[in-house]
Design goal:
The structure holds two protein chains of two kinds.
Chain A: H1 17-33, E1 48-53, H2 59-70, E2 74-79, H3 91-99, E3 105-110, H4 115-122, E4 126-132, H5 138-152, E5 159-163, H6 170-181, E6 185-189, E7 205-207, H7 210-216, E8 219-222, H8 238-245, H9 249-253, E9 260-262, H10 275-278, H11 285-304
Helix pairs in contact in A: 1-11, 2-11, 5-6, 5-11
Chain B: E1 2-7, H1 9-27, E2 33-38, H2 42-56, E3 63-67, E4 98-106, H3 110-118, E5 127-136, E6 148-153, E7 159-164, H4 166-169, E8 173-178
Parallel strand pairs in B: 2-3, 2-4, 4-5, 5-6
Antiparallel strand pairs in B: 1-8, 7-8
Helix pairs in contact in B: 1-2
Classes of the chains: A alpha/beta, B alpha/beta.
Chain lengths: ~300, ~180
């Protein structure tokens, strides 16, 4: 297969396994490109991409922007805080105005789940979902799987535990879909209050004891507690959360095997993970960031090749 | 579809030896020279030349790299089929080196145009030459000509020149295929 089965990347749940394979094979080529002395290719020189961020982001936005520029696309950036959205403009109007300036592709982060799907039904452009509320964050899940594949050879058959605030996490949901699609086993682990009620119906194991979860897994993906999304108290205190769900050196060394540590960032050092673990050789957190650019280049390249001239 | 043999295995071997000698004439010990096989089909020619230079003419260590030009092509989104990439493997800098591009068939010249851009990602070469096994005359879209050519072929646009190799297809042959 040399073409994606979709015209937009709205979520992992719309992808097939072959799509993921194609994205990874293409990302392998781009990873080689971004390690050259000159890290740029001219493929997308006639493509214009708008990055619409209705919610704050540092790493994802930088990573997308860099991926676009490495492919020689023209890039325009938009943040909700400095825009007419504040004056009452609707999403479709905002985007159609931008598309009138001859934009071919939109990368969007939005606080509302389903914003990407909604947009793809109403405007003529390729849409890449860069996170929609607590729903999906497909490129993060792709780069996580890509990093596992790079570190452990393949994703199929691996045991991955996602630890922390599953309830508010789009990274968790996209990761569950992506890992299962590639034949990995998935477990979620966290305080009961931060595990969605029917999460087991997705076919994942559920565990509330971090030690047991770590003893089971090959890879631990540590999530941040998303305080900004919490309207009520889900646990008594940060200190108590850390006591039960923090990955620290003692815990890691007490395991009888070496597991791979991941984190989508931003890290709250000393809460979900301690500094010595985050900076240890078992952590592939910075590889994830490097792979993020290559994977996003692959997604953009493959979607752009489907835009008809 | 009909096809006729343009070059047999024996003829290809003789031509490759001649090309190797012509390379030696210009590059002597290959100290500052690197061979770059253009992916996908130029790689085989480049590997053969490297092996002839090293085994038959005792040149020590000819540097060889593979260059994929997919992301540098000028027909992205223009063709029916999406472009598929191959591996680029250049483990050295080409800065200040004499580069020889090697491909199997030179047709419109567009691949070589793309390769000229692509190689710049690896530094600024001292000079770039082009070697092709087959040169299809009168079919160039760009002002690009080979410095070393195996055989000139006159073929009309409906025809295709196909090169097969022992390692891949079982036999060294150059065919003229009528589509």
């Amino acid at each position: 297969m040399s073409e994606l089965s979709v015209n937009h990347l709205l979520g992992i749940k719309y992808l097939k396994r072959e799509d993921i394979n194609l994205i990874f094979e293409t990302a392998d080529h781009f990873k080689e490109v971004i390690n050259r002395p000159i890290k740029k290719v001219p493929s997308l020189r006639d493509v214009t991409i708008a990055n619409l961020f209705f919610e704050n982001s540092t790493r994802t936005k930088l990573s997308f922007e860099l991926a676009e520029k490495r492919l020689s696309a023209d890039v325009i950036n938009f943040s909700a805080s400095q825009s007419s959205v504040k004056k009452g403009e609707t999403l479709i109007d905002t985007v159609n105005n931008i598309l009138s300036m001859k934009v071919d592709m939109v990368v969007m982060r939005h606080p509302n789940p389903g914003a990407g799907v909604f947009l793809s039904n109403h405007v003529k452009a390729s849409i890449i979902n860069a996170g929609d509320g607590a729903h999906e964050h497909p490129t993060q899940a792709l780069l996580d799987s890509y990093s596992i594949r790079e570190k452990l050879g393949e994703v199929a058959g691996k045991k991955v535990v996602i630890v922390g605030d599953i309830l508010h996490s789009r990274v968790a949901l996209s990761n569950i879909f992506a890992l299962q699609l590639q034949g990995a086993e998935v477990m979620v682990c966290g305080p009961k209050t931060l595990l969605p009620k029917h999460i087991a119906s997705l076919g994942v194991k559920v565990e509330t004891n971090l030690r047991k979860a770590l003893e089971w897994c090959d890879v631990a993906n540590m999530l941040r507690v998303q305080n900004e999304r919490m309207d009520i108290s889900y646990f008594p205190s940060t200190r108590e959360y850390a006591q039960q769900f923090q990955l620290n050196k003692n815990l890691l060394e007490s395991l009888d095997k070496e597991i791979t540590i991941m984190h989508p960032g931003p890290i709250n050092r000393g809460v979900e993970i301690t500094s010595d673990v985050a900076d240890s050789g078992q952590a592939i957190i910075l590889d994830q960031v490097e792979n993020g650019v290559a994977v996003r280049m692959a997604v953009i390249y493959l979607l752009a090749s489907k835009i008809k001239q | 579809m009909s096809q006729k043999v343009l070059l047999s295995a024996k003829e290809i071997n003789i031509i490759l030896h001649r090309l190797a000698c012509q390379l030696i004439e210009n590059h002597l010990d290959f100290k500052d020279t690197v061979l770059i096989g253009i992916q996908p089909r130029g790689v085989r020619v480049a590997e053969r030349l490297k092996s002839i230079l090293e085994t038959d003419y005792h040149i020590k260590e000819v540097k060889l790299g593979y260059l994929d030009i997919t992301f540098f092509r000028d027909d992205f989104r223009r063709g029916e089929k999406p472009l598929e990439a191959n591996k680029t493997r250049i483990d050295f800098l080409v800065e200040g080196k004499k580069v020889v591009f090697i491909d199997d068939v030179l047709y419109t010249g567009r691949s070589i145009r793309a390769a000229l851009t692509a190689i710049q990602s690896f530094g600024r070469p001292e000079e770039i030459e082009l070697l092709t096994l087959i040169d299809r005359r009168f079919s160039r879209h760009l002002p690009i000509q080979p410095d070393y050519r195996g055989r000139q072929v006159d073929a009309i646009n409906e025809e295709k020149v196909k090169v097969t190799w022992k390692e891949q297809e079982g036999e060294d042959t150059v065919f003229l295929v009528n589509k």
